[in-house]
Sequence to fold (351 residues):
Amino acid sequence: MNKIYLGILGGGQLGSMLCMAAKKLGIYTIVWSDDPTSPAKEFSDEFIFSNYSDNEKFNYFTKKVDKITFEFENIPFDILDKLNSIKEVLPKPKVNKIIQNRILEKDFVNDQNIKTTKYKKINNKDDLISNAYLLPAMLKTATLGYDGKGQFKLNNLEDCKNVSLTKDTEYVLEKMVNLKKEISVIITRFKKDEYEIYEPFENKHEDQILRFSKIPADINKEHFSKSTEYAKKISEKLNYIGTLCVEFFIDDKNNLLVNEIAPRVHNSGHMTINSHNISQFENHIRAVCGLKKVKTLKLYNAEMTNILGNEIINYKGKKFQDNEFFFDYLKKEIKEKRKMGHFTEINKIND
Ligand code: ADP
Ligand code: MG
Fold:
C-alpha cells in the first residue's frame, strides 16, 4: 500500500496525540496551524504555520495530503468546505456546521428525541430578561467557546443586568442542571453500523474545565446503555466518520441529558492510550484513512488527571510507577488553568 499523507488542521495536544497514533500506523502527518508555537509541531512529520486563509499554504497543503482531518472543531466552516472540495475532509465539514453552534447542536439532539438542558437563543439584554425563568442558568456564546471560555453563570436578574453582551453575537441561555454526575461516550464510526465504542467515562470538572476522568464510570446499567445507544444514534444520524464524543449530564433526578457533542477526539478519552489496545486517536486515524477496524478492547481500568498551569512543574522530572504515565504537551508558555499535560494511572480489571 502507498504511504498515506494525512493533513491535520490545528496543532494542540490532540493534534500531537493524533500524530503519535499515525506514526505507529506508518502514516505521514502534515499539521497546519495558525499558532507557530503549536505543541503538535514536535510530533508531526511536517508542520505548516500560517493563517488558514493563506492561499499559498492552502495550495501546498491540499496538493501534498491524501486526506484531511482536524483536532479543533472551531475552524471556520468555509475553510473546511473549500478544503473538502479538493481533498476529502473527515469528519465532513457539514457536521461541524451543526456542532460548532450550540443552538443548532441542541436542536439537532432534541430532533433525535434525546434530551438536553432547557435552552433559549439570546441576542440581546431584552431576550435575557424575558427568559429569566430559566435562572439560575449558564449563558454561553453560541460559537467558539471551549474550556469554559465565553461562559457566564447567571443566578438572578441582577446578574442578567450586569453581564456585558457583545453586539451581534449569538448566545444560548442554558438552565443550570443540578449535576449528580457527568459522563462522556466516545465512539469511532467507520461506516454505516460499523463502529468501535468505549465504555462511558466518568468526568469531574472544576471551573468548567475537565479535571479528572475514570473508567469504569460509577453509573447504573440504564445510564450505561442509554448513553452508548445515544452516541451510536448521533453518529449514525450525522453519517459521521472518525472519533466523536458525546458529553452527558446526569441530574439529581437521574435524567440523562446531552450536554454537547465534540466532533473529534476528546480529553476524557486520553486514558485510552494506556487502557485499551486501540486508543481513541488510533481509531480516529484508522477510520479517516480507511484502514481496517480492529476490535477495541479494554486492557485496564484507568484514571486520568489533567495537569493545569503551574502544576506541570512538579511533574517534570518526577519518577513514576510502572502503571503511571505522564504526558507533557510541551507547551512553550505556562498559563493559569491551561492544559499543560495529563497523568494516567492504569489498574487491573477486577471482575
Ligand atoms: P465547553 O465547550 O467549554 O466544554 P460545556 O458546555 O461542556 O463547555 O461546559 C463545561 C462544563 O461546565 C460542563 O462540563 C459542566 O461541568 C459545566 N456546565 C456547563 N453548562 C452547565 C449547565 N447548564 N448546568 C450545569 N453545569 C454546566
Ligand atoms: Mg464540554
Observations:
- Residues 117, 138, 145-148, 174, 176-177, 179, 182, 205, 208, 247, 259-260 surround adenosine-5'-diphosphate (ligand 1) (CB under 6 Å).
